[in-house]
Structure formats: structure tokens, C-alpha cells
């Protein structure tokens, strides 16, 4: 079985890769900071340590969310991803505040930056490793729709920006512009905080069973109505749990249709929706057409 055909394995691999990158970069930045004394590198080290803690939380949450449904959790454990997203948002917010505090302190108490070769080399390594991880995470999010992996990728997107700012600050230090470091830090902190709020809103949407986008619901209804023998479809309800979509709808069928045939049409309608949206688990209820209120017929 390939990775792309196994979303769970892909999500686990993404969380392990993120944790490995965070720990590796934290170690490298710690050594470079100890050698150079750069406050910019200290900010990068703080961010990487928070990334590592958040990625560990993510790894545990994704592992739990992929557990199969059981008697106590008939809809599975997917909402653990949304809960991890809230935890990620907290880590991201703390990271933004710490970076902003360091930037303000640098503006109030300017310190010369030490543009050590070791520091620049570590930042270049960070940019390469983070960029590769982000590409992989984007692929995983497209393939699985994972809320947790999407939230985790925000850490490393902010880390990419932070490292780019540190590299520029270290480079400009040699031209007598030490304040660039602090100004970049403030800008990045603002971006990180805004992104944390976005992750919070998305996680709350999942936890509160917000419906899928209207265009997706309309497309599902259209697929069900296109099944030969189906007279209409209505009352479609959707919600998300981790990488799964749960879909319920009512089919309008001829009044005298035998139960076995009605069941077969329901299965065909569900299969049509699953073919277009593989993440969907579809539950169909058959209604006699004559019993459906006119305002619901579709």
C-alpha cells in the first residue's frame, strides 16, 4: 500500500518528521547561540523549542485520533485533532509573545549582533530543513485534510519567516543597522499571533460541528439526485471529525418501491458521494416521495 493511499500512515509520518526537524534545529541553534551570543539566535532557539513541544503534542494527538471507532466513540476519535489545534494555537501565541518581548527589549536596549559564521550556517540549514518540511506538510494536508498537521505547519511557516529575518538581521549587522533584527521580530510576532487566531477559529468550527462549505453540500445533493430512480434528496447534514466527513441525507423514492430496491438506491447514492469525496462516511435515509413535505422536495 502506498503512502498516498494510507492517510493515517501519511499523517503519522508528517508528525514524526516535524518533531525530528524541530529537535534537530533546536540543538543546532543552541550550539550556535552558545558560540555567538546572538539574541536573534536565542529567539530562534526559543521558537524551535516551542515548535518541538507543539509537534510532540501533535504526534500524540494524531496517534489517538487515528484509533478506530469503539463502543464509547462510535464516530471515532478524530476530534482529538481539533483539540490539538487549540493546543497548537496556545503554543503559537506564547511563541509570538516571547518573540515580541525580545524584540521590544532589543529596541529599548540595543545590543551589537555577532554575525558569527556558525550562526549564519545554522540559519541556512534551518531554512532548507524547514522549507522541505513545509512542502511535505502541504502535501499531507491536501491528501488528508488534517487539522492537526495544518496547525503544525503554521509553526514551521513562522519559523521559516523568523529564520529569514534572523539571517537578514545578522547580515545587515555588518552594515550598522542593528535595529533591523528587532523590527523583523515584531513583524513576525504579529503574523504568528494572527495565524494562531485562525487556527483557533478552525479548531472551534470542528469541535462545534460546523457544516461543510455550502458548495460541497450542494454538490453532494446533486450527486444523490443524479442516481437513476431517485426522485429527490433533502435534509443533508454534515460535520467533520479529524480527517473524516460525516454526511447524512434523506432520499425521496417512489411510494411503492420494494424495500430491497430502496436499499440498493441508497447504497448507490452513498457510493456516488464517496467516489467524489473519499473522506465522507455517508448515511442515507429513504423517504416515500408522497410523505415528503412539498417545501422539502428537491
Summary?
By secondary structure, this protein is mainly alpha-helical. It has 8 helices and 3 strands. The mean pLDDT is 79.
Can you offer a commentary on this structure?
The chain is mostly helical and 298 residues long. The protein has helices at 7-36, 39-65, 80-108, 117-144, 147-173, 179-207, 214-225, 259-276, and strands at 232-241, 244-253, 280-288. Strands 1-2-3 form a three-stranded mixed beta sheet. β2 (244-253), α8 and β3 (280-288) form a beta-alpha-beta unit. The protein is elongated.
What is the fold's blueprint, element by element?
Blueprint: H1 7-36, H2 39-65, H3 80-108, H4 117-144, H5 147-173, H6 179-207, H7 214-225, E1 232-241, E2 244-253, H8 259-276, E3 280-288
Parallel strand pairs: 2-3
Antiparallel strand pairs: 1-2
Helix pairs in contact: 1-2, 1-4, 1-5, 2-3, 2-5, 3-5, 3-6, 4-5, 5-6, 7-8
Provide a count of the helices: 8
What is the molecular shape?
elongated
Distance between the termini: 40 Å
Number of strands: 3
Taking all Cα atoms into account, the compactness measure Rg is 25 Å
The portion of residues assigned to helices is 55-70%
Mean of all residue-level pLDDT scores:
79
Largest sheet: 3 strands, mixed
Strand content: 5-15%
Query: How are the strands of the largest sheet arranged?
Result: 1-2-3
Structural class call reads: mainly alpha
**Poorly predicted tracts of residues:** none
Q: Give the SSE string.
A: HHHHHHHEEHE
Amino acid at each position: 500500500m502506498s503512502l498516498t493511499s494510507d492517510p493515517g500512515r501519511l499523517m503519522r509520518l508528517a508528525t514524526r518528521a516535524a518533531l525530528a526537524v524541530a529537535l534537530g534545529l533546536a540543538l543546532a541553534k543552541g550550539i550556535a547561540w552558545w558560540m555567538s551570543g546572538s539574541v536573534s539566535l536565542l529567539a530562534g532557539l526559543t521558537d524551535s523549542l516551542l515548535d518541538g513541544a507543539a509537534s510532540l503534542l501533535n504526534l500524540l494527538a494524531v496517534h489517538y485520533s487515528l484509533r478506530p471507532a469503539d463502543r464509547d466513540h462510535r464516530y471515532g476519535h478524530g476530534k482529538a485533532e481539533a483539540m490539538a489545534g487549540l493546543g497548537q494555537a496556545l503554543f503559537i501565541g506564547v511563541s509570538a509573545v516571547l518573540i515580541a518581548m525580545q524584540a521590544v527589549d532589543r529596541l529599548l536596549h540595543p545590543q551589537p549582533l555577532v554575525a558569527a559564521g556558525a550562526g549564519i550556517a545554522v540559519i541556512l540549514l534551518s531554512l532548507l530543513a524547514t522549507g522541505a518540511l513545509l512542502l511535505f506538510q502541504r502535501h499531507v494536508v491536501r491528501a488528508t485534510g488534517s487539522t492537526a498537521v495544518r496547525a503544525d505547519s503554521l509553526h514551521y511557516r513562522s519559523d521559516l519567516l523568523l529564520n529569514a529575518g534572523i539571517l537578514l538581521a545578522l547580515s545587515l549587522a555588518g552594515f550598522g543597522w542593528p535595529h533591523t533584527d528587532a523590527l523583523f521580530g515584531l513583524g513576525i510576532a504579529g503574523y504568528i499571533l494572527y495565524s494562531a487566531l485562525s487556527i483557533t477559529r478552525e479548531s472551534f468550527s470542528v469541535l462545534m460541528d460546523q457544516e461543510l462549505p455550502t458548495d460541497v453540500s450542494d454538490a453532494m445533493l446533486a450527486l444523490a439526485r443524479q442516481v437513476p430512480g431517485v426522485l429527490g434528496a433533502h435534509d443533508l447534514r454534515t460535520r467533520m471529525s479529524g480527517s473524516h466527513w460525516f454526511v447524512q441525507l434523506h432520499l425521496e423514492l417512489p411510494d411503492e418501491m420494494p424495500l430491497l430496491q430502496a436499499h440498493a438506491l441508497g447504497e448507490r447514492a452513498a457510493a456516488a458521494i464517496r467516489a467524489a469525496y473519499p473522506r465522507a462516511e455517508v448515511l442515507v435515509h429513504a423517504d416515500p416521495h408522497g410523505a415528503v413535505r412539498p417545501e422539502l422536495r428537491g
